[in-house]
């Protein structure tokens, strides 16, 4: 199994037609003070498995700091991906995992590790940075986003 897309966003959903909608992809949280409590973030992963790998898999998520230490609860779930719409195509699924009120106690890089069957298939880095580092300019953000 592999991840064809892995990112953090403000929101995501799958339409009735099966389209993945992603709103507000980001990789940095700018804050003026610590700890910062982020009201909502969504882990979005597009998954693909071959016919030989089959539809049943164990998915997991763990969030680690720069030292590899866990900084939040882990997620571990058994999933079964629906059959491909056309025989011969890979099994495909979208995994949307909302996380509310995530607490980040210090400036650092945290990594969201996506696991499938105990193998890391994707890593998403999130920077927690002081707002004082933002530089205004024609291609820079003028100020920190507000949660």
Keywords:
five-stranded mixed β-sheet, 147 residues, mainly beta, Immunoglobulin-like
Fold blueprint:
Elements: E1 2-14, E2 20-26, E3 28-31, E4 36-49, E5 56-64, E6 75-80, E7 91-104, E8 108-116, E9 119-130
Parallel strand pairs: 3-9
Antiparallel strand pairs: 1-2, 1-4, 4-7, 5-6, 5-8, 8-9
Question: Would you give an account of this structure?
Answer:
- The chain has strands at 2-14, 20-26, 28-31, 36-49, 56-64, 75-80, 91-104, 108-116, 119-130.
- The chain is elongated, with a radius of gyration of 17 Å.
- It has a single domain (2-132), classed as Immunoglobulin-like.
- The protein is built from no helices and nine strands.
- The strands form two sheets. Strands 3-9-8-5-6 form a five-stranded mixed β-sheet, with no helix packed on it. The protein has a four-stranded antiparallel β-sheet with strand order 2-1-4-7, with no helix packed on it.
- Strand 1 (2-14) and strand 2 (20-26) form a beta hairpin.
- Helix content is 0%, strand content 60%.
């Amino acid at each position: 199994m592999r991840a064809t897309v892995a990112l953090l966003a403000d929101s995501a959903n799958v339409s009735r037609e099966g389209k993945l909608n992603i709103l507000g992809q980001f990789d940095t949280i700018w804050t003026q003070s610590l700890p910062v409590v982020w009201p909502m973030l969504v882990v979005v992963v597009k998954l693909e498995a071959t016919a030989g790998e089959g539809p049943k898999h164990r998915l997991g998520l763990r969030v680690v700091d720069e030292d590899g230490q866990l900084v939040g609860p882990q997620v571990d779930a058994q999933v079964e991906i629906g059959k491909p719409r056309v025989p011969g195509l890979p099994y495909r699924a979208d995994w949307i995992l909302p996380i509310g009120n995530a607490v980040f106690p210090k400036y650092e890089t945290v990594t969201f590790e996506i696991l499938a069957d105990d193998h890391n298939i994707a890593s998403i880095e999130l920077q927690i940075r002081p707002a004082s580092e933002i530089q205004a300019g024609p291609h820079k953000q003028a100020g920190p986003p507000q949660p």
